[in-house]
Amino acid sequence: MNKLKTTQDAFVETEEQRQAFDKVLDSLKKTPGPLMGALQQAQDIYGYLPIEVQNRIAEYFGIPLADVYGVVTFYSQFNLTPKGKYKVGVCMGTACYVLSAGPILERLKTMLGLQAGGTDAEKLFTLEATRCIGCCGLAPVITVNEDVYGKLKIDDLDGIINKYRGMGKDNG
Amino acid sequence: MANKIKTLQELQEIRERVAKTVVNRKTLSPEDSFGGGECPKHHVLVCGGTGCVSGGGRVIFDEFKVRLVEHELETQVKMVFTGCFGLCAKGPIVVVYPDGTFYQLVEQKDVEEIVREHLIGGKPVARLASKEKDECGNEKTIANSAFYKSQHKIVLQKCGLIDPENIDEYLAYDGYLAYEKAVRNMSQDELIENLKASGLRGRGGGGFTTGMKWQFAKNSVSDQKYVVCNADEGDPGAFMDRSILEGDPHAVIEAMMIAGYAIGATMGYVYVRAEYPIAVDRLKVALEQAREYGILGKNAMGLGFEFDIDIRLGAGAFVCGEETALLRSIEGGRGEPKQRPPFPAVKGLFDKPTLINNVETLAAIPHIILKGPMWFSSIGTEKSKGTKVFALGGKIKNTGLVEIPMGTTLRTVIEEIGEGIPGGKKFKAAQTGGPSGGCIPASHMDSPIDFDALIELGSMMGSGGLIVMDEDNCMVDIAKFYLEFTVEESCGKCTPCRIGNKRLYELLEKVSEGTAEVSDLDKMEQLSKYIKENSLCGLGQTAPNPVLSTLKYFRDEYMSHVVDKKCPAGVCTNLLTYSILQDKCIGCTLCQRACPVGAISGELKKPETFVIDVNKCIKCDACVPKCKFKAIVK
Ligand SMILES: Cc1cc2nc3c(=O)[nH]c(=O)nc-3n(C[C@H](O)[C@H](O)[C@H](O)COP(=O)(O)O)c2cc1C
Ligand code: SF4
Ligand code: SF4
Ligand code: FES
After folding, report:
1. Which parts of B75-230 fold into alpha helices (H)?
2. Which residue has the higher pLDDT, B34 or A38?
3. Which domains does chain B have, with CATH numbers?
4. pTM for this predicted structure
5. Which ligand is nearest to the CA of B618?
6. At A95, is the pLDDT very low, low, confident or very high (cuts 50, 70, 90)?
7. I need a surface site. Which of B195, B406, B487, B574 has the fewest CB within 10 A?
């Protein structure tokens, strides 16, 4: 579970984010074992878990920051760095793997110039090798944020990526 | 909310009233059918399982609604968004009742035609309907089709039949009657004895006798106990539990309530993978509705016991499927397994006695209570009772979800239900048990599928992933794939698993790169044995199984890599050299245009000039599928 442990970007938050986060913390006050839920919802709000956010969770629940950080780094879905606008996930579950998910991932790496787990400088794309997403009947499968593309052929990739590249450019 | 609590009498009234409106639907098991009754003329069921939704199921459902309004048919046609029908390969699926027409691969543009021709005109759209014929040339009913005929649906019975977001429909199929029966007619001990007599064993992988586990949890004395449902489903390529949660969430809730009564727990948790958003949503809706009806809560169903359920989400760690790690994760810690004993039944969640069961195990329980343990134990083999759900995937025509009686042979599942391998390719192996299991070769196709037979073959039941591989899959590569998974997912707590599996992986890498020696294969076997014996939890203890089973059944293939430096399946790139057979080439230049690095040279229509520069070639395989004459070999 290697990942980048620091982030160069300074942490900034909007007023809405701050309020939403405060609400989350209050709602979990009485929950036994609140940490996972707090981290998950914080990540939904901020997109990642900067140390500032972890610190606030630690203080609120009286859990040592080291423990919070230990949990964040244990689970692969928690991110310490911001991700791209479009998260391209290549399913590497067994069903997809035996139907050539490997070459699909390789092609995406070349197309996006990224390694698995990497985010480009403009923060447009993040490439991820994901675990089974449960659409094995449609294997091989890739996802771009919430969109699922199944029964995929390598030749489909250009079209899919270009679509998002276009959309990303259009709205800044 | 409190004002809406339903009495047992009121629940029974709902059951009877709604049952009349769903009688036109049929279960997909040949033995169950309902007839007659009053209900909307047509029921249109659209699959709302993750597979079909990804393929456009939601869009199709919405399109139907729009079209029905246009044709002023809203009151005559009942639209239902169901759970998975099982046949994911042919999704999105739409089923129209009362005739039971099974539409496959439906697209948004087909909806108007179905509405006009079928719902208004009374003639099914033949183009989209399943077209299997029997020997006499008559069209088969869907229940008699190859895919469904050999199945026996118990836990999947209501998936694809009811609206999972409508508690009334669950009630109509005897929902929450099992809880009522258990609490009113059975003592806790009787209930547990019933479960033992049924022979039900855990579906989460371990295969432990469920009744025994309940007994242990009941015997523990404590002020607070918990029931936990394991819905982490980490086996990559398996989606049984997800489909049950999506298609019949109340069954799991009801079973957890029964468990709560049996062991004396008032609180339950469902731990679900975060990768399953639809399942989580449906479960939330179901919990909400159950609370509204007073089915969950302080005085559940007015029967004098308290029970409530909370959902907890995973965050992408396979090891959290292991029960002690899972409990740690609910508590908010790193999901590292603990030494057992103490078992969770003695000291579990928040150090209180905890009963932890898998989704599918739980989903079978209401059926066992209602129909009796003897009914359940009459299905299956001597030591494996009942049915098992498998997620059939990989190189197989009918990918999807199947439920078969224990003891069904692999051949029946693959050749009959799955209808074999696509593209005329040859079957090579079936993998069960995911990263903890093994690969079963063609020579064992006729072994029955049950807990013990699979272990004998060096694999295991696991949670129910069944991945089919054909001649194009390299078994060394598959072993490497699984081991890479476990190496990544090892929590790192104990050395045999953390370091041992890493070393084992490196040996496999040597094999696939062609740098291994024959003695390395023996080393792999020894190391595997050591890891199995010395790891702390099930993850490490089973991690070498994919390696051992492929070494056992496909040693020849390993030898080709090691001795001949060849990968017979053409997968391990280091051992491949791409070249063009000039006598097959026609000089069309298609491959040339596909090559991203310009490694192919040759002049149009001059086959004798076509060559691949092996120094430039990056072995990306882009050229091979482009050549229509199979002139590129590796
Ligand atoms: C590495 C590992 C992963 C596991 N993953 C799962 C899982 O995803 N789902 C599950 O129900 N059980 C899983 N188990 C088994 C559980 O530890 C436990 O035995 C099971 O949930 C008990 O329920 P059952 O008796 O109903 O099968 C896993 C075990 C190990 C060692
Ligand atoms: S066997 Fe592996 S996963 Fe299990 S406790 Fe040891 S290191 Fe962790
Ligand atoms: S395998 Fe890829 S790099 Fe090699 S010749 Fe074919 S297209 Fe070119
Ligand atoms: S293996 Fe890819 S979706 Fe399951």
Report:
1. 111-113, 146-149, 167-172, 177-185, 188-198, 210-219
2. A38
3. 20-141 (3.40.30.10), 175-376 (3.40.50.11540), 387-470 (3.10.20.600), 475-564 (1.20.1440.230), 577-633 (3.30.70.20)
4. 0.92
5. 3
6. confident
7. B574
